[in-house]
Specification:
- There is one protein chain.
- The protein is α+β, with helices and mostly antiparallel strands.
- The strands form two sheets. It has a three-stranded antiparallel sheet.
- Strand 4 and strand 5 form a beta hairpin.
- 4% of the residues are buried.
Length: 102
């Protein structure tokens, strides 16, 4: 990924792909380069990360957690604060029904 700035000052985040072109005898004679503007995607990712951090901070301050349970997968997704509330090391998933009942 690279950031390109126009003379007018506008900046773009781009992904660069390049491929050499060969002659019949195997010599590189040219290259094809593609610049893909991913500025909107990067901005959206940054906004999402900022929003997640604000949620974590709010849960930490209020000392509340959240969770989601996926019945089909018997998988619980806990917020970081919920792990802290129960005195458990933070992980990706919380306990599932099999672990609790089995």
């Amino acid at each position: 990924m690279a950031i390109i700035q126009q003379l007018a000052g506008k900046r773009f985040t781009v992904v660069l792909s390049a491929k050499p072109l060969y002659s019949e005898d195997g010599q590189i004679t040219a290259a094809v380069t593609v610049f893909e503007d991913v500025t909107a995607h990067v901005n959206m990712q940054n906004s999402l990360m900022e929003s997640e951090e604000r949620l974590k901070m709010a849960q930490r301050i209020a000392h509340v957690g959240s969770w989601e349970y996926c019945v089909n997968e018997d998988r619980a997704i806990w917020s970081e604060e919920l792990f802290h509330i129960f005195g458990l090391p933070p992980g990706k998933f919380g306990p599932n029904a099999q672990r609790i009942c089995g």
